[in-house]
Prior knowledge:
Layout: H1 9-29, H2 36-43, H3 47-53, H4 57-80
Helix pairs in contact: 1-2, 1-4, 2-3
Amino acid sequence: xxxxxxxxxxxxxxxxxxxxxxxxxxxxxxxxxxxxxxxxxxxxxxxxxxxxxxxxxxxxxxxxxxxxxxxxxxxxxxxxx
Length: 81
């Protein structure tokens, strides 16, 4: 797995796209039904790339949850101002 600090800007963009697609898939089919190959296909990256960024489905789901939580926090904070 590649550490975030070691990723190039292109890799960070691809990683963000993967996370975006995971969040969408969770909304459509639920977390239990998310498949790594579906994530790769929807993201337009190779399955090996998904595994390079996320060592497991659980790691990918955790990253997606963290990203979603950060977005929600920003929305709440911007709405509270």
